[in-house]
Amino acid sequence: MGIDPEAVRITEMTSDHGEVELTFIETWDGLYAPVGLRTPDGPGPFPLILLASGNGGEGMAWIRDAMRNRGWTMDRLVEAGYACAWIRYRTEVELGYNNGGPLVRDARQGREMFNRSPLEYEDEIAIIEYFNADPRFSGVGLIGMSHGGEMVMKICSEFHGALVGVASEPASHEYLALNPDHTAPMNEETHMRNIEDMQMAEVEKVRSRIDMDVARARVAGIQTPILVMGRETDHLQGIFRTTYDMLAEAGKDCEWVSWDHDLHGYVYPMRGADGEYEVNDVQRQAVAGVIAYLDRYMK
Fold first, then answer.
1. Is the pLDDT confidence value at 2 over 80?
2. Burial of 258 (0-12, 13-18, 19+ CB in 10 A)
3. Tens digit of pLDDT for each residue in 37-81?
4. How far apart, in whole angstroms, are the C-alpha atoms of residue 165 and residue 144?
5. Can you say whether the dihedral through the CA atoms of 134, 265, 53, 209 is positive or negative?
6. For 98, phi and psi rounded to 5 degrees?
7. Fewer Cβ in 10 A, N or C end of the chain?
8. Confidence grade of residue 1 (pLDDT, cut at 50, 70, 90)
9. How many Cβ atoms from other residues are within 10 Å of residue 271's Cβ?
């Protein structure tokens, strides 16, 4: 059977995660985002969880690698009755969210016209809209890690099509309008900030350096329940906790949990050099807690 170029769905077998569906979803400006989907056995419709990690790019090659080597959490979700999908999106734009302003969609000569290019979190909104219209699924929830966690905050501030969000180790410095200190120096060649070693472990330090008016205005738009997950030893733990605090202070439906683990991204266990998943009890408990949280809003 031939492939419909306007609705590409490719079935691929993985060695120990079974059958996956690889597809390309059209975003708002007509470009396509790659997605890797798994569904439980049975007729459905299923609740669907979108998984995001990091700052984008790398296309379908990244998705296929994630389906093979970051599939442990997907296994747990499928066992719990969820469909789940790794998503990819365009590369993060440095301060694009702060500097670009709201996306305005107009029309010219019978076609859409934007005031700026869509950003990576808006690709995820387009993906949510796509799956909300797919009769195979009964609703969409989000798990985002690191920049993917910040994307959960950005999405839920202005879009209400997701039933629940999990922001794991959310790198929300831009969302909170954080003014970094000397630990995030400017790259002299690119004139962009180097935040790899930014030290923001203390809540008091973070709160003293964010624009509270901007952060509160962004949080005010959130209607989605959100679980914020921290990591005890992380140099950005103050940002993770402040993300939750801003939600709680605004009276939002939110929860906080923090785990002590040496992996940034512990919610997504990865394969080790021996081909086996490196998973410990902390990760098992953390992922079980995430699924229990999702159950409350999606089942």
1. no
2. middle
3. 999 999 889 999 999 999 999 999 999 999 999 999 999 999 999
4. 8
5. positive
6. -70, -45
7. N
8. low
9. 15
Q: Which residues pair with residue 51 across a beta bridge?
A: 86, 143
User: Does an H or E element contain 130, and which?
Assistant: helix 120-132
C-alpha separations of 36 from 10, 148, 153, 178 in Å: 10, 16, 23, 33
How far apart, in whole angstroms, are the C-alpha atoms of residue 268 and residue 299? 22
Residue 180 and residue 209: Cα distance in Å, rounded? 7
CA distance 261 to 289: 15
pTM: 0.96
Name which residue leads in pLDDT, 237 or 192: 237
Domains of the chain: 9-298 (3.40.50.1820)
pLDDT value at residue 118: 97
Report the interhelical angle of 281-298 vs 72-79 (nearest 10°). Answer: 40
Separation between Cα atoms, residue 61 and residue 127, nearest integer Å: 18
| Residue 11, token pair as written in the block | 């079935």
Q: Which of 153, 149, 141, 91 is nearest to 118 (CA)?
A: 91
Q: Which residues pair with 50 in a beta bridge?
A: 85, 142
